[in-house]
Amino acid sequence: MAEIAADAPQRVAPRPRLRGAALLGTVPFFAFVTIFLVIPTLTVVIGAFTGDGGRGFTLANVRALTDDYILDAFGRSITLSASSALIGAVLGALLAYALVTAKPDGLLRRLVTAAAGVLAQFGGVTLAFAFLATIGLSGFVTLWLQEHGLDPYANGVWLFELPGLTLVYTYFQIPLMVIVFLPALDGIRPQWREAHVSLGGNTWQYWTRVAGPLLAPAFLGSTLLLFANAFSAYATAAALVSQGGPIVPLQIRGALTSEVVLGQANLGKAMALGMVVVVAVVMALYSLLQKRTAKWLG
Amino acid sequence: MARVIFRWTVLSVMGVFFLLPLVAMVEFSTRDPKTWPLLLDWPRLSSEYPALTEGIVASLAQAALTSLLMLALLVPTAVWVRLRLPRLRRLVEFLCLLPLTIPAIVLVVGLAPVYAWVNYLIGGSSLTLVFAYTILVLPYAYRAIDAGLSAIDVKTLAEAARSLGAGWFTVIVRVVLPNIRSAVLSAAFLTVALVLGEFTIASLLHRTNLQVAIEFLGKSSAGVSVAVSLAALLLAFVLLLVLSLAGNSRKGKAS
């Protein structure tokens, strides 16, 4: 069938000329992507290894990444991403499991997955303001707690630091986990459990010897995806922390907005490159685990 | 039974966690009873908070233009590559999915010099952000459109139209496009939702949009900014809910 279609007569020039003419059709796309995606990417990569005069190869920027304050920022970024990914993964997996035990086409499941799809996209300034209205200094929950004699900020305001950012990030991490982990849970066949039970296994053994090992790659992979998601997030943190740079994206903001003063225009590019490397490594691991997951739960 | 208890415990705890911020936003933005009426009164809003209305208008225009540019770039290219240059498909797919691995904050660093040229050639209007936004939405839009094209027999349709004397423009606009209407619609919805929520690139390239305006407003009048956040959020909710419910029901019919 496909061969017949391929051999069907076409009202066009013979092959050799056709190739060149056909390529012309993709010129707008490739030109656009080159200018606004490839060139910016190359700018970051090349700029990371270029001196501030704009000329000459140097490792100074990359070496500057080992400065204490930048290392600290990377450390905090990784801590924030890892903790919000872990919390999001565990809670998200619980929620996903709760959904799997419900009716597959039921209203509950459709509603929750639709809401998760929306909330996973939710981030940025609006999310920051939502939490300011909730547990900001004059937020709804803060005031309510204070009326009842509990002050969440008795030991200092933590909302604008790592614990606060972790809390805010879980708001989009949990729904994302539900979306990416649900398909794996759906892949678990009830027959496997029946087989396990008929061979005399109990629930504990089922989870540790059958379902656990099967779900582990999917769980780990989803956690990595959540990590990358939190690691590259900027807007939420930027709206919450208006000055200074506890995490890498905010350090890059500092380098971008005050590059003239510091004279370290390309340090920002080196930090950006560092971020890309971390995200690329995480995503590569993710796709490896994804392949392993597909073996059983595809 | 244990399962049912477990399910409802998890769901209600999560429900509280996810609804609380939304409830708090409602409470926070109604502390001053004048806030919401002000939002509905466009002329007064634009005289009291000109930056805000400017941001809203800019965001709406950006969303519309980004959708158009995205469609104009992606649909013909995807169709063309499928029909005539199948070898390029992997490359196009790779380029379209690339922005997923490049955080927006990194993209901004690389875009800054490109936008220095854009400023020089076209000017510093906030509408120039449309170029960057088109890149941002490429992965989502590409996947939607590619799925739409996979579901129909593009080759046969195009050959039938060509053999009846249609030009390539007619093939793409009047034959293929109507057949992938729902894919195009979902790509456009995603684009609108993404553009309305974008902050990183706009704020760091010193241009305005809704999110930048909200953030700016947050420093002076928190109540109004929370109210606008809530309104923007509800709009995005409705858009994406319609999208995902429509997607679900389509799947339901197919199976």
Automatic annotation (TrEMBL), chain A:
<feature type="transmembrane region" description="Helical">
    <location>
        <begin position="112"/>
        <end position="145"/>
    </location>
</feature>
<feature type="transmembrane region" description="Helical">
    <location>
        <begin position="270"/>
        <end position="289"/>
    </location>
</feature>
<feature type="domain" description="ABC transmembrane type-1">
    <location>
        <begin position="74"/>
        <end position="288"/>
    </location>
</feature>
<comment type="similarity">
    <text>Belongs to the binding-protein-dependent transport system permease family. CysTW subfamily.</text>
</comment>
<feature type="transmembrane region" description="Helical">
    <location>
        <begin position="206"/>
        <end position="228"/>
    </location>
</feature>
<dbReference type="InterPro" id="IPR000515">
    <property type="entry name" value="MetI-like"/>
</dbReference>
<protein>
    <submittedName>
        <fullName>Putative spermidine/putrescine transport system permease protein</fullName>
    </submittedName>
</protein>
<keyword id="KW-1003">Cell membrane</keyword>
<feature type="transmembrane region" description="Helical">
    <location>
        <begin position="21"/>
        <end position="49"/>
    </location>
</feature>
<dbReference type="GO" id="GO:0055085">
    <property type="term" value="P:transmembrane transport"/>
</dbReference>
<keyword id="KW-0812">Transmembrane</keyword>
<dbReference type="GO" id="GO:0005886">
    <property type="term" value="C:plasma membrane"/>
</dbReference>
<feature type="transmembrane region" description="Helical">
    <location>
        <begin position="165"/>
        <end position="185"/>
    </location>
</feature>
<keyword id="KW-0472">Membrane</keyword>
<keyword id="KW-1133">Transmembrane helix</keyword>
<dbReference type="InterPro" id="IPR035906">
    <property type="entry name" value="MetI-like_sf"/>
</dbReference>
<keyword id="KW-0813">Transport</keyword>
<feature type="transmembrane region" description="Helical">
    <location>
        <begin position="78"/>
        <end position="100"/>
    </location>
</feature>
UniProtKB/TrEMBL annotation, chain B:
<dbReference type="InterPro" id="IPR000515">
    <property type="entry name" value="MetI-like"/>
</dbReference>
<feature type="domain" description="ABC transmembrane type-1">
    <location>
        <begin position="56"/>
        <end position="243"/>
    </location>
</feature>
<feature type="transmembrane region" description="Helical">
    <location>
        <begin position="55"/>
        <end position="79"/>
    </location>
</feature>
<dbReference type="GO" id="GO:0005886">
    <property type="term" value="C:plasma membrane"/>
</dbReference>
<dbReference type="GO" id="GO:0055085">
    <property type="term" value="P:transmembrane transport"/>
</dbReference>
<keyword id="KW-1133">Transmembrane helix</keyword>
<keyword id="KW-0813">Transport</keyword>
<dbReference type="InterPro" id="IPR035906">
    <property type="entry name" value="MetI-like_sf"/>
</dbReference>
<feature type="transmembrane region" description="Helical">
    <location>
        <begin position="225"/>
        <end position="246"/>
    </location>
</feature>
<dbReference type="Pfam" id="PF00528">
    <property type="entry name" value="BPD_transp_1"/>
</dbReference>
<comment type="similarity">
    <text>Belongs to the binding-protein-dependent transport system permease family.</text>
</comment>
<keyword id="KW-0472">Membrane</keyword>
<feature type="transmembrane region" description="Helical">
    <location>
        <begin position="183"/>
        <end position="205"/>
    </location>
</feature>
<keyword id="KW-0997">Cell inner membrane</keyword>
<keyword id="KW-1003">Cell membrane</keyword>
<feature type="transmembrane region" description="Helical">
    <location>
        <begin position="91"/>
        <end position="114"/>
    </location>
</feature>
<keyword id="KW-0812">Transmembrane</keyword>
<protein>
    <submittedName>
        <fullName>Putative spermidine/putrescine transport system permease protein</fullName>
    </submittedName>
</protein>
<feature type="transmembrane region" description="Helical">
    <location>
        <begin position="120"/>
        <end position="142"/>
    </location>
</feature>
